[in-house]
Amino acid sequence: METIFVAALKEETPELNKFYHTGVGKINASIKLMELIELYKPNQIINYGTAGSLKKNISGLIECTTFVQHDMDARGLLNFKLGETPFDPISEITFSNSGYICGTGDKFVKNQLELNCDIVDMEAYALAKICHINKIKFKCFKYISDYANEDSSNDWIENCHKGARDFLSLYPNCK
Known about the structure:
Blueprint: E1 3-7, E2 19-21, H1 26-40, E3 44-53, E4 61-69, E5 93-94, E6 100-104, E7 119-121, H2 124-134, E8 137-146, H3 152-170
Parallel strand pairs: 1-2, 1-3, 3-8, 4-6, 6-7
Antiparallel strand pairs: 3-7, 4-5, 4-8
Helix pairs in contact: 1-2
């Protein structure tokens, strides 16, 4: 299999039938993607999902090309920076400088973050790191479903269908 399409949840991919679902969070996404890579040996992984924007001027379907962990905070240990994993040479993954910065974390963000990123999600960093380490081409598209504020959980459900339709216009073979 050349390309695998992955998303966290079936709810994010209504009418997109070619997707594998990883579950929510970095651990679940990592486990499922490693299983899929072992089984299918793909050349490319395409991730699609919903995300919260930290900036009001970002909306719709966007491509993310840089990935960081917004919840990795080891600053109290030997002066590590926010987002830096202790003793790991890979803390930021950049595939291209032309897209947005996605901050991944295992928490639902409802306010601004200290770390420099444009949007937030719960899986993309893990998927990007696995692809980077395994030399697999990685593309990531996120539909801005909310603005990482107190209304975020209400906005998410109604935006899943809009995002899936927009993604389908890029990859019509997913239906």
